[in-house]
Amino acid sequence: MASSVLISDTEPWKDLKAHVADINKTHLRDLMNDIKRSQLMTNEFDGILLDYSRQRATPETLEKLFKLAEAASLKEKINRMFGGEHINSTENRSVLHVALRAPRDAVIQSDGKNVVTDVWEVLDKIQKFSDSIRSGSWVGATGKALKDVIAVGIGGSFLGPLFVHTALQTDPEAIETARGRQLHFLANVDPIDVARNIAGLNPETTLVVVVSKTFTTAETMLNARTLREWISSSLGPDAVAKHIVAVSTNLTLVEKFGIDPNNAFAFWDWVGGRYSVCSAVGVLPLSLQYGFSVVEKFLKGASSIDQHFYSTPFEKNIPVLLGLLSLWNVSFLGYPARAILPYSQALEKFAPHIQQVSMESNGKGVSIEGVILPFETGEIDFGEPGTNGQHSFYQLIHQGRVIPCDFIGVVKSQQPVYLKGEVVSNHDELMSNFFAQPDALAYGKHPEQLQKENVPKHLIPHKTFSGNRPSLSILFPSLNAYNIGQLLAIYEHRVAVQGFLWGINSFDQWGVELGKSLATQVRKQLNASRTKGQPIEGFNYSTTTLLKKYLEASSD
Ligand SMILES: O=P(O)(O)OC[C@H]1O[C@H](O)[C@H](O)[C@@H](O)[C@@H]1O
């Protein structure tokens, strides 16, 4: 396909549009009776079972989606990504987060250089540094070991590491390696977040890791200055060198901030912020908490999916299948949202991370060529662990709007409990819901069934479930560091697949800039009004009134 041709102008797209009418004649209740179809719509890789038989799709739909993939040159685009080409064209950068978890002997080129060598240089440095902190050979300014780490960062410099940290917190191996240590995250510039982070912490035993790709993000830099002040006011300015380290691509600004360049951990412009959890952004704080060998397993898990994604035919390729199905749901069936429902409390921060990965990547209005798109891209991602979500927003999913759901389950619990006399173990109780919900959504409940159950006539409409609501189930054998890496990479690549199919640039984020620059104008005004009493100027009536009220009411 010539790159300037929109995917919506291609025959496979039009064919899929027409195919919606065929699917609208079906109901999942009936589709699920076709065992051959169900067999075809399951896939297994490395113990991970993907079941997408509850998608509103048939084998014919899949064939048509594969044709769409061809029309979108999906394979070529994946190859270009792995090949280090500058596929992030608006920033003229490669997109090589896969290199962050590649084995030491792999060769991945960007601009004629094997980046894997640089990656391992930093990983080795992290291992050495985290070992020295953990063993107590590196001590703080007063000679005490550093047991607490505060990772300061926001967006991609926060959400991924928080997800992985939360997922590892209950993993038996990680519990052992984290004993006696605490990892905290400071993201919001709201001073409440600082207060929460430092409550009960002693600067003498605290290490601050400032994480920022650009080292210019206003929130992170103010939070970093606030913690620098917290440390130096208590231990003296010289203590900063022992208590603050940094992760960034901008090592000049790191040094300007007063951090010893030896204590700076680099990454590169070919790592997008939201794809940076496998760089020092995640690896440093996580290694400090859990030790490098646990984090290495996480990287290996992600790498296993990278290999699978790169080399497996589309029919068996988990991220490709997931991406194609999401596109089918969004662009053809017209479902604008996606619920991410892990039946594991350890994955409670997974949906917030994927929100950034997906929505910042694919919420775009123009093609990679800059042509305004006649269709919408991206989806509204949200989610909560099951069963908590069931007691919250599932009502809407069952009887209100149709929202395709990802059910993510785990075979072996990280923390099994089986009480004497109970019918099932606690994990089986949880998983009963994981298995039941997709069928409730797919099959629904008929008025006739309700009649048979002698439900009063006036309640029948209220108790009827239309069903035919799509979902997919992903079952992991366990949830250790390796599996967590796999889960991350599956979703990262799925999002990329969707972007490649829509023909957009999933790796820039210009949409976050406007709000930032308007905040700069407000910041200047607040300073001028507070310090020089200058009147509010240059804002519309609404903002002027709000600012006046804010300044007047907080003038003391
Ligand atoms: O890592 P930093 O440079 O501080 O950036 C932190 C975040 O800020 C921006 O607003 C971007 O939208 C995010 O993609 C990024 O992750």
Automatic annotation (TrEMBL):
Which GO molecular function, any one, fits this protein according to its record?
isomerase activity
Taxonomically, the superkingdom here is: Eukaryota
Instruction: Name the catalysed reactions.
Output: alpha-D-glucose 6-phosphate = beta-D-fructose 6-phosphate
The record's annotation in Gene3D superfamilies points to: 1.10.1390.10, Glucose-6-phosphate isomerase like protein, domain 1
Return the SUPFAM superfamilies for the record.
SIS domain
**Pathway involvement of the protein, from the record:** Carbohydrate degradation; glycolysis; D-glyceraldehyde 3-phosphate and glycerone phosphate from D-glucose: step 2/4
* Family label: Belongs to the GPI family.
Subunit? Homodimer.
Q: What is this protein called?
A: Glucose-6-phosphate isomerase
The organism encoding this protein is Prunus mume (Japanese apricot)
Q: What gene makes this protein?
A: LOC103320936
